[in-house]
Design goal:
heterodimer; A: 314 residues; alpha+beta; Jelly Rolls; Phage tail protein beta-alpha-beta fold; 3 domains; 7-stranded mixed β-sheet; 7-stranded antiparallel β-sheet; 9 helices; B: 180 residues; mainly alpha; Arc Repressor Mutant, subunit A; 0% strand; disordered C terminus
Chain lengths: 314, 180
């Protein structure tokens, strides 16, 4: 039947296009399929809309917690099969739970990205994270709390709201407490962390217990000793670096080099402390490290020494 | 982690200025309607989405225009709800990301009940597969392993479940949807 076939194909694409990693060839195949027929677009849009709908989440939660009466509604033989299957599943689920404690339930997921390669991931609680290159994020989703530690790099988080289970992110000296919201955490060196909020509210706790509430469009930096407001930034739906850009206003060159390093296949270093502290301003296309480096050569008279594996600025 | 490709990735310039946006526009209108049944908003969301897509495509090469459009639309819908909530004077902190507007609460509750009714009416195995994927975010791989079935079977269960759920939504929406 044609309608059912379209739904089946749409379901296939829904899974493909909502997975954390989508290959370019798959993405193009999807557009081709969508362009081919108006009914494809209609059915897929209905499914994607339903899939994204918070109403479905509500219904699924309700259905998940409620006892299921439908076994009685089913016809004779099938009912038995389904009922015993359900019982089997229940036993299996309990067995799994027993075996799993304290296994997977308490497991920590560590996400690492290579230099030059970012990644989109969906966490076990449905929250989404976009990692920069050369980043490491450790995530623990427990039944009673959700925590993440950003060891290095940068992450944009879109946290699934849960009333009774908060989400906390640690990065350097900072601890960020989260409600359902979207924000960016940039780990700068050993201690410093910059947090920008794109949606909702986060609480930011500094090393000495100092506490700050950040709302949409606000940003702050946590250093080894204290918290500092940063000027409000433009409100967009997500940070620039995801699209490969970084905007600086009178900030140290070392910071730009750190960003470039995340995007570059080869390590980019700056050895000279004075040079690293030098202030620069501008909007840099950091996903193209080579062109930024050559721009720096001309604009700031920096010497770039490329030794194959390591590129050094002098 | 190996080097993954982001959904929005460089693929060359073959699309520049040549794409017919009407398909994307119609798809997004329909998507917005499926998210929440308000025709006026759906139209606005669709137009704004296409404008932003065109703007974005000027400076980026995009692998999937549709994927980009759905993502932009989802953000716009979320923004819209936040803005509407702002007008009600409720505190931002106390609200879920996609919490319903006051004037929609009753309608939403009915919708949730209808959807959960449709879920309850499904065969237990199908509901199990669907809840694992949608509610608990489990991967196909985990589900196939746990429930001892092929990934094709998982996909089929999810497809049928979605079919049942969209039908339940459409039954409820009456004349507001075009029903095509």
């Amino acid at each position: 039947m044609k309608d059912r076939q379209i739904t089946e194909e749409a379901t296939y694409w829904l899974e493909q296009m909502n997975s954390p990693v989508v290959d370019v060839s798959v993405a193009r195949g999807f557009d081709k399929w969508m362009d081919a027929d108006a009914r494809h677009r209609d059915v897929f849009s209905d499914l994607q809309g339903l899939w994204d709908s918070p109403l479905l989440t509500g219904a699924a939660r309700l259905s998940n917690s409620a006892p299921q009466p439908e076994a009685e509604e089913m016809a004779g033989g099938r009912k038995k099969v389904m009922a015993s299957m359900a019982f089997g599943l229940m036993v299996a689920a309990i067995a799994l739970l027993v075996l799993a404690l304290p296994g997977p339930l308490f497991m920590t997921d560590i996400y690492r990205t290579d230099r030059g390669a970012g990644d989109h991931i969906t966490l076990a609680d449905g929250s989404r994270a976009t990692l920069s290159g050369d980043a490491e994020l450790e995530v623990r989703i427990l039944p009673w709390k959700r925590t993440a530690v950003l060891r290095r790099g940068e992450v944009f988080l879109d946290i699934a709201h849960e009333r009774f289970r908060g989400f906390t992110v640690e990065s350097g000296s900072a601890e960020i407490k989260v409600l359902g919201t979207a924000f960016n955490v940039d780990r700068q060196g050993e201690q410093d962390t910059v947090v920008q909020v794109y949606r909702g509210v986060v609480g930011l706790e500094g090393p000495t217990g100092e506490y700050m509430v950040l709302r949409k469009g606000q940003a702050a930096k946590a250093t080894a000793h204290h918290l500092v407001w940063q000027s409000d930034f433009m409100n967009r739906s997500g940070p620039d670096w995801i699209a490969g850009w970084f905007e600086m206003s009178n900030e140290p060159l070392g910071l730009l080099v750190e960003k470039l390093d995340r995007y570059s296949e080869h390590q980019i270093r700056i050895d000279d402390e004075t040079l690293a502290r030098r202030r620069v301003s501008g909007r840099f296309h950091i996903s193209r490290p080579a062109s930024v480096l050559s721009a720096l050569k001309y604009a700031y008279g920096v010497t770039v020494v490329d030794k194959g594996d390591v590129i050094t600025l002098q | 982690m190996s080097s993954p490709t982001l959904p929005i990735a460089p693929v060359g310039h073959e699309r520049d200025g040549r794409h017919d946006w009407s398909g994307v526009m119609e798809a997004i209108r329909r998507y917005a309607l499926a998210r929440r049944k308000q025709d006026d908003i759906a139209e606005d969301i669709a137009q704004e989405t296409v404008l932003r897509c065109i703007e974005y495509c000027r400076s980026h090469d995009v692998a999937s225009l549709y994927a980009l459009a759905y993502r932009i639309a989802a953000n716009l819908i979320a923004d819209h709800h936040r803005a509407a909530r702002g007008q009600t004077g409720e505190l931002e902190e106390s609200i879920e990301c996609d919490a319903p507007l006051p004037d929609q609460i009753v309608a939403d509750r009915l919708e949730i009940e209808r959807l959960s009714g449709a879920l309850s009416g499904m065969p237990a195995l199908r509901r199990e597969v669907f809840l694992r994927r949608r509610l608990h975010g489990e991967s196909y791989a985990t589900i196939t392993k746990d429930l001892n079935m092929s990934s094709k079977a998982v996909e089929k269960h999810i497809g049928r479940a979605l079919e049942t759920l969209t039908k339940a939504m459409k039954r409820s929406s009456g004349s507001k949807r075009d029903g095509s």
